[in-house]
Design goal:
Radius of gyration: 20 Å
Number of strands: 9
Distance between the termini: 7 Å
Low-confidence stretches: none
């Protein structure tokens, strides 16, 4: 049986390159001279987290815009970034904001993907495998149609397809 995995996996090398370019631009820009504006990366086994630092809310927004521009230029999908955290006060006037880089499909989204495959009435089976969804079927054409359907239906997270086996 042919199968493939539906995953949400960013290219961390490109994320790191965009981060380095953003820090380099921030350090050379005139409007950031004398300020403590920077972006730091913290990476553990499961997740990557970016922390933006600036002197006030306006500069924090500028740091965020520089980061997003560099990520877009490096072809990193901005849907990988989870920007729900509000800016926090650090010290007197300093601000910081944490942005998480999504990796893996959350269980709610995985259940939605499985339901979409079932609703498509194709002769495919979908099962949740940790942070991925494995879809298998007898025909390769049905799998390719399923990929196209998932690309058009799921807009919240960037999906990629791995381990296509014949």
């Amino acid at each position: 049986m042919a199968s493939f995995d539906v995953v949400c996996k960013p290219n961390l090398v490109e994320v790191r390159n965009a981060l380095d370019q953003a820090n380099r631009e921030i350090s050379t820009r005139f409007d950031f001279k004398g300020s403590d504006a920077r972006i730091e990366e913290r990476e553990d086994a499961k997740q990557c987290e970016l922390t933006l630092f600036a002197d006030d809310d306006f500069k924090l927004a500028q740091v965020r815009d520089v980061l997003l521009a560099k990520m877009a230029k490096r072809s990193v999908d901005l849907r990988f970034l989870d920007r729900e955290a509000e800016p926090e006060k650090v010290g007197m006037d300093k601000r910081k904001q944490t942005i998480k880089v999504r990796a893996g499909i959350e269980s709610v989204m995985a259940k939605r993907i499985v339901q979409l495959v079932k609703d498509s009435r194709a002769k495919l089976t979908a099962s949740i495998q940790g942070e991925a969804v494995r879809i298998s079927g007898a025909k390769k054409d049905a799998l390719q149609e399923c990929m196209a359907m998932l690309r058009s239906e799921v807009k919240e997270i960037p999906l990629s397809f791995d381990n296509f086996r014949d």
